[in-house]
């Protein structure tokens, strides 16, 4: 990877898979089929660690500040919108988590939060991939890109720990096999 945006878009692909899994779980709930609350709890943990701490952490801690330095506005600009949507996403994750108490799910609360999260994140990812990232790539120098990629790697090690990224991808594969095949 030569660009920070490529790393972030690669992570978007993993997040989109989880969004598909969430939709399948919601579909199962709506059909009154049995749902595995452990899978839902694991999925919520995936979102908290991979999507929020890792991915959004890279954006908020490194990528967005680098974009601001090259003239892309935060307040009343695309970065501000992305930051606001990150916070909305955190709220939906919290609502999904709160819908499960003692391995029992409040199905309506989960479905409402899950669908809201899926819709938010699909639109959010499209805006980043198609608007914000190309804007950044046009303005960031090669040395900026290299620094960001290095910062991303260090962020992963410091925030989620060595080997955790691989564990999360194993969990993602498990979800794909169980819910999407």
Overview of the molecule:
- The chain has 181 residues and is mainly alpha-helical.
- It has six helices and two strands, in the order H-H-H-E-E-H-H-H.
- It has one domain (4-180): Up-down Bundle (Four Helix Bundle (Hemerythrin (Met), subunit A)), CATH 1.20.120.
- It has a two-stranded antiparallel sheet.
- Helix 2 packs antiparallel against helix 3 and helix 3 (78-98) packs antiparallel against helix 4.
- The longest helix has 33 residues, at 37-69.
Question: What distinguishing features does this structure have?
Answer:
Four Helix Bundle (Hemerythrin (Met), subunit A); mainly alpha; 181 residues; 83% helix; 6 helices
SSE diagram, text form:
Layout: H1 4-30, H2 37-69, H3 78-98, E1 100-101, E2 104-105, H4 107-139, H5 142-160, H6 164-180
Antiparallel strand pairs: 1-2
Give a brief rundown of this model.
The protein is an all-alpha fold and 181 residues long.
**Alpha-beta classification:** mainly alpha
Strand content: under 5%
| Assigned CATH architecture | Up-down Bundle
* SS element count, helices: 6
Average pLDDT number: 94
Helix content: over 70%
Largest sheet: 2 strands, antiparallel
Q: CATH H level: which superfamily?
A: nmb1532 protein domain like
Uncertain spans: none
Number of domains: 1
What's the total number of strands? 2
Distance between the termini: 29 Å
CATH topology-level name: Four Helix Bundle (Hemerythrin (Met), subunit A)
Overall geometry comes to globular
The whole-angstrom Rg is 17 Å
Order of helices and strands: HHHEEHHH
């Amino acid at each position: 990877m030569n660009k920070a945006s490529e790393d972030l878009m690669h992570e978007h692909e993993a997040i989109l898979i989880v969004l598909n899994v969430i939709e399948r779980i919601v579909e199962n709930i709506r059909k009154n089929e049995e749902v595995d609350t452990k899978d839902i709890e694991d999925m919520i943990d995936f979102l908290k660690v991979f999507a929020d701490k890792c991915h959004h952490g890279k954006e908020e801690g490194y990528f967005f500040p680098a974009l601001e330095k090259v003239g892309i506005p935060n307040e009343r600009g695309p970065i501000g919108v992305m930051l606001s949507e990150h916070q909305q996403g955190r709220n939906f994750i919290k609502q999904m988590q709160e819908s499960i108490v003692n391995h029992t799910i409040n199905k309506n609360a989960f479905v409402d939060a899950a669908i809201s999260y899926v819709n938010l994140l699909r639109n959010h990812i499209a805006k980043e991939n198609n608007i914000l990232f190309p804007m950044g790539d046009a303005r960031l120098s090669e040395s900026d890109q290299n620094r960001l990629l290095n910062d991303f790697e260090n962020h992963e090690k410091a925030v989620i720990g060595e080997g955790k990224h691989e564990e999360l991808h194993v969990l993602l594969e498990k979800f794909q096999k169980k819910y999407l095949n």
